Amino acid sequence: MASLYTAPDGHCRCAWVAGVEAFLPYHDTEWGYPVSDDIRLFEKLCLESFQSGLSWRTILAKRENFRAAFDGFDFNKIAAYGDDDVARLLADAGIVRHRGKINAVINNAARAQELVAEAGSIAAFVWSFEPAPEELAEPQTQSTSPASIALSKALKKRGWKFVGPTTVYAFMQAMGLINDHATGCVMRARAEEMRADFTRPAMKE
User: Fold this and answer.
1) Has 31 been annotated as catalytic?
2) Is 26 an annotated catalytic residue?
3) Is 46 annotated as a binding residue?
4) 186 near 24, Cβ under 8 Å?
5) Which one is catalytic: 56, 127, 160, 169?
6) What is the pTM of this model?
7) Domain of 71?
8) Are 182 and 2 in contact (CB under 8 A)?
9) What is the CATH number of the domain that holds 133?
10) Based on the structure, what is the number of domains in the chain?
11) pLDDT digits (tens, 9 = 90+) for 4-62
């Protein structure tokens, strides 16, 4: 069973919240709640790719800088980025200045446009990989899953970059495709309620 952290309000949270002030509001108001907005989904995939080799604490602290630098993660705008934009981003000390990851965001923006044309929305595509309840492991006991491996392969097949199974699993946790709040976490029931009320987006026929 995943360990827990007792927050200042006396309620238990997932253990990863401990010691980082910014993690508590993120955990309580965002993490694990289902998302169908394509911009938010694209942003999260991008930020998870930037996190590779770093801590989420670093990325969360820079999230507003990333949003400003990447036009709010509007993939229709990012897909048109050129060499001047790459140079601008590499000079921006407010973000993670990694050429490969910056180029991956621009590439993935064009792939996102193609995915919308194919499936109707990014949301419809990624939610088609939501695992069945019987496929789920105990909360926070793994870093990949059959569903994250399958979604990673599907994205890579379509030309996406920096979307390995671990990155995709973290994305699925955060965007509510699974409820991975620890057993005993005060937000687990809330996440489950939101998932129950959530209308899954349908793929384009």
Assistant:
1) no
2) yes
3) no
4) no
5) 56
6) 0.95
7) 4-197
8) yes
9) 1.10.340.30
10) 1
11) 999 999 999 999 999 898 999 999 999 999 999 999 999 999 999 999 888 999 999 99
